[in-house]
Amino acid sequence: MSEQRFGAGIWHFATYVDRYATDGYGEPRTILDAIELAGQVDDLSVVDLNWPFFGGDISDDDVSKALDKAGLGVIGITPEIYTRQFSKGSFTNPDPGVRRLAHEFVTRSCDVVRKFGADYVKLWPGQDGWDYPFQVDHGTLWQHSIEGVGQLAAENPDLTFVIEYKPREPRVHMSYSSVARTLLGIEKIGLPNVGILLDFGHALFGGESPADSAQLAIDHGRLFGMDVNDNLRGWDDDMIAGTVHPIELFEFFWTLHKNNWEGVWQLDQFPFREDSVAAANLAIDFLKRVQKGLAVLDVEGLKQAQAAHDAVAAQRIAQNALFGS
Ligand SMILES: [Fe+2]
Ligand SMILES: [Fe+2]
């Protein structure tokens, strides 16, 4: 295995507000503060940046300098198409003017991707969907989801777009909600520069087996990126990777490994009450255990066990590799 690179969403190093701690879980930070903290993580190579940059009037050059100082590159730019102006949707907003605004907004973020030489535009249309039965015409809504992404991908063939699906939150039902539905949309768009960013926690939250989701996306040539974290499966808790579902995380990475999928292993965690640098270090240390586990996995034994659907034998092999025999 080549030298594995690790990344993180820059929001990992921000502070957060929710509907309870409306005064926030910490003093507000700018994106420059967050980049400085990310630079303190032991083994981080790249970050995914929210755009516009949070914390005030911050220029591309300010961010460039902070990244250089922290020794970090940019893997992706996440245009914020889920803030108040898009609360009734971005690509699926009922108002064509707001849909246009979303398009223009993401188009502007494309230039930021070019400027930083990032790998992709990360689309997380978290407000695209519905809340109540009878609220929307489902055919129209899905059509808008597909057209919104398709138009951007067609107009920017030099760039890659990744869709990060999630079942719900903030919308009660998100339009791009599952691996299968997102693949259907991408195949309908029919362009080579649109793929999936598979968030391990979103797959868990959606009742998927993340390894199976990864295999499906890979089989369609559409696994362009990934995030890891953990949760208790009932919500997108964005906890520290490896803390709750170590075996499923191991199977997920085994699936990437056996398909020769090479990309950044990226953290999408929200350490509300934890030290963000320590939380990132703990996750990356666990991911390194996963790497070691992959190196010693009894591949032949696993093949035989899987050929017979022998759950006990397969589990023993996986446990021996990850936890030691
Ligand atoms: Fe994510
Ligand atoms: Fe998430």
UniProtKB/TrEMBL annotation:
Residue ranges constituting the Xylose isomerase-like TIM barrel domain according to the UniProt record: 51-289
Entry annotated with the keyword Cytoplasm: yes
Source species: Kineosporia succinea
Subcellular location: Cytoplasm
Keywords annotated in UniProt: Carbohydrate metabolism, Cytoplasm, Isomerase, Manganese, Metal-binding, Xylose metabolism
Reactions catalysed: alpha-D-xylose = alpha-D-xylulofuranose
Domain of life: Bacteria
Biological classification of the source: Bacteria, Bacillati, Actinomycetota, Actinomycetes, Kineosporiales
One Pfam family linked to the record: AP_endonuc_2
Transmembrane domains' residue ranges: none
Protein name (Swiss-Prot/TrEMBL): Xylose isomerase
